[in-house]
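Tutorial, part two.
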Amino acid sequence: MNKITLLLSLISLPLLAQTKLEKGYIIDLNNQTIPVEIYYQDWAKNPNEIEAKINGELKKYTPKTIKEFGLENGINYVSYNGKIDNSSQFYNRISETKQPEWVETSTFLKTTVNGPSKLYVHDNNTTITYFFSKEDGEIKPLIYKIYKETQTTTSKNEQFKNQLRSNVYCGDVNVNKVNYTKNSLEKYFIDYNSCITNGAFKHNKDVSTKNIIEFGVQAGIRSEKNYVHYTSYDVENKFNGTSPTFGVNAEYQLPFLKNKYAIALEANYFHFKRQDVQASPRFGLAIERKIIEIPIGIKYYIKNDNEHKVFLDAFYNAKINLSDANYTEVVYSESAKTEIANMSSFSIGAGYQWKNLGLKARYNLKSSFDVGTYMSGDTSSFSLNLFYKFARIEF
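Running the prediction step on this input gives:
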């Protein structure tokens, strides 16, 4: 339980970190563009209020006090004061009404396609709704709703397709194939803007939406601490020492918060073997472990840019024993071997990366092993690894 508490505490620490100021702008009600520094949090749901510094003074802004705000990296939000469908999209809460359940709302909509015709999204953690506007005109909701047709069947109100045909249509595109999803609607609006500008329109995807996958190799030294106690022989010993380790790694950097969070997976090999003769050459203890360790966990990048990266990580480690070379042994008149079963553990670590080359340290928390009532022990380790990232995919 202590290991789990420590692991969760480590993962939670970055969530409590203060959000940094980002350079950006606001457009006030007089259409004046004002440079500011915005407390940007890559909101999971659309904000109804923001904080920004202007001339060193911290101020709060709402959709009723400004028209728009944005960041240098292309992220943009516009003010919206109007109706939003509040119908639930959760199956157990779907209503029997075909028509949207409108509520008057004051919020900021995130711009996902910025061109002659714009696409916006609103997410309140229960319902995702899309909006559009043409030539800087009125922002209108794209209507879509799942509703109960009977107690056992559902149907869809796909009025948004008629809205697209009437307002945002160019070429021979088949509107019936458009889905009420971010990727499908984004593609439709990008294609429409390109069509009406004869291919001149270029869509700039903001940096917060990057998906990144990286692959690497690593090698280093692992310092082991193993304790073994045979109660039936009344012998015990500590086996400490170092052994080489090497492996491969992969990570998927999540497409939000500037790719500060990543899901990481590794496969590492190590072989540890020691023998300690105590009373005589015929009496003592020995241990051997030959293992592939499979850590899977979370990385948090304190700093993550093209050249320098600093990170913390936390892993759950599964272990695969190789052949029968995982045992403790009593060296007596006749050798008595006891197999060490696959043991899981938790680990925490930190590292630094310069371009594609890096160094990381990791501590494997103590884990215990027991075989019946006659043998017990525990193991922990500290490793230092050099790693090299040889492939990177962005999409």
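The two ends are 39 Å apart (CA to CA). In part three we will examine how such features are distributed along the chain.
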